[in-house]
Amino acid sequence: MGLGSMLLMPLIGNLSDVYGRKALLTIPVTLLIFPSVIMAYRRTTNYFYAYYVIRTLTGMISDIGIQCLPIAYAADCMSEDKRASAIGIVTGVGSAAFVCSTFAVRFLSTAQIFLVSSISSSAAALYMTIFLKDTTPHVNKKYNALNQPILANESESDSSEKTLSPINTPPFYQIISLLKSSTTILLATFISFLYGLGEGGAQTPFLYFLRARFQYNKDNFAVLMLICYGGATFSQLILMPKLAPIIGEETILSLALIAGFSNMLIDSIAWATWVPYLVALFPMFLYLAKPALQSIVSKQVGPNEQGIAQGCISGITSFANILSPFIFSPLTDLFLSERAPFNYPGFSMFCIGLPWLIAIIPTMMISWFDTYNSSHKIRDVLC
User: Fold this and answer.
1) How many CB atoms lie within 10 A of CB 342?
2) Cβ(81)–Cβ(372) below 8 Å
3) Which partner for 114 in 15, 39, 74, 186 could form a disulfide, CB atoms 3.0-4.6 Å apart?
4) Beta-carbon count within 10 A of 238 CB
5) 3-class DSSP string for 303-370
6) Is the C-alpha dihedral spanning 99, 105, 111, 112 positive or negative?
7) Distance, C-alpha 278 to centroid of its chain
8) Of the candidates 372, 374, 375, 376, which has an alpha carbon nearest to the alpha carbon of residue 304?
9) Is residue 195 within 8 Å of 289, Cβ to Cβ?
10) CA-to-CA separations, 276 to 195, 271, 360, in angstroms, rounded
11) N-to-C CA span, the chain
12) Three-class SS of residue 271?
């Protein structure tokens, strides 16, 4: 699923630059309805396999598409000085929805869970269709269908005013051109990969570690997730809009990465069952990393590249999420067994935090470069 997201997200983002955010956002929102409807209707073995296949296929688009396309939409509608706050609010609402759903499933039966999921997904698609206003398709208005300047007085030699025409340029070429357009974007892709490695390790391998060492069960994991995403909701909705105008996205990103490494470091030396609950508040700051990075990237590209830029960042993070368990799960198993080279059961948790620590270096480098050096930069506010 993650590999498919990595490949499809830049393409979907690119299409949203051409045909508008609403048209492309309709696809992942609508696709979310079908898997839940299958399990709400019947939960026999055959229906489960059908659910599994359809959920895998739709998840390639839905899971990441619903995360990156609203970010591009927010970038369309907000000026640069308010963009970090807007992106933080969008991600914060997503975290709040996760908290509400996790809390709700504790009081619902299995049949009711899928029924509520189906109704919620359908309501989201209906609401978006009726009330969401589309942004203007981000085709470069200086070019007509033949990719020629419309205004005769616009010189082709003025390279600073040119942008790639999304219609006539292949997506792969646009991705390469996007990465070459700014040193900041290159650094941001490296940060997104390192962040994805740590994020992937903090999911499956970390849960396996808690299960093996502290005998955590599903109720323990549910409480842990409520604490993590409750803190994430607070930080993204409250702290991000307050801090971004004062200290900037680069500083927020650095502090978030430090908090993430500190979280895994303390977990690696945890001696009691309650310690992970205590340090679960650290992700309150860690979850500021992604909106801060998305805001940095959004300021480096013009209106006709917001979708493909956010798609690339999400796709790289998704690829790192896939790669991470292959690295950290065997390492976790090794140091929890009698075959460990030395006595440090939580060594794999320390290693999971290292990508976040390393990512601080390119984050600091971003501030050394001119944040507004992209040749594709356009300051228009479209909404």
Assistant:
1) 6
2) no
3) 39
4) 13
5) HHHHHHHHHHHHHHHHHHHHHHHHHHHHHHHHHCCCCCCCCCCCHHHHHHHHHHHHHHHHHHHHCCCC
6) negative
7) 25
8) 376
9) yes
10) 20, 10, 24
11) 33
12) coil
Under a CB-based contact definition with an 8 Å cutoff, are residues 178 and 312 in contact?
yes
* Tokens (6 digits) for 106: 């504790």
Cα 360 from Cα 251, distance rounded (Å): 10
Average pLDDT in the 5-21 region? Answer: 81
Which residue in the block uniquely carries the two structure tokens 């070019």? 143
Integer angstrom CA distances of residue 141 from 48, 164, 171, 302: 48, 11, 19, 13
- What is 142-167 written as a DSSP string? TB-TTS-BSSTTS-TT-GGG----TT
203 pLDDT exceeds 50? yes
Q: How far apart are CA 320 and CA 313, in angstroms?
A: 11
Q: How far apart are CA 254 and CA 194, in angstroms?
A: 13
Count how many Cα atoms sit within 13 Å of the Cα of residue 284 in the half-sphere of its side chain: 13
Q: How confident is the model at residue 187 (pLDDT cuts 50, 70, 90)?
A: very high
Q: Which of 283, 299, 291, 293 is nearest to 240 (CA)?
A: 291
pLDDT tens-digit profile of 262-300? Answer: 999 999 998 888 888 888 888 788 999 999 999 999 998
What's the mean pLDDT in 196-202? 93
119 alpha carbon, distance to own chain's centre: 25
pLDDT digits (tens, 9 = 90+) for 298-308: 998 888 889 88
List the Cα angle 68/72/74 in 5-degree steps: 115
Segment 29-55, tens digit of pLDDT: 999 899 999 999 988 999 999 999 998
For the ranges 171-180, 226-235, 372-381, the lowest mean pLDDT is seen at 372-381
Closest CA to 316 of 229, 201, 186: 186
- In the block, residue with structure tokens 């460990």: 340
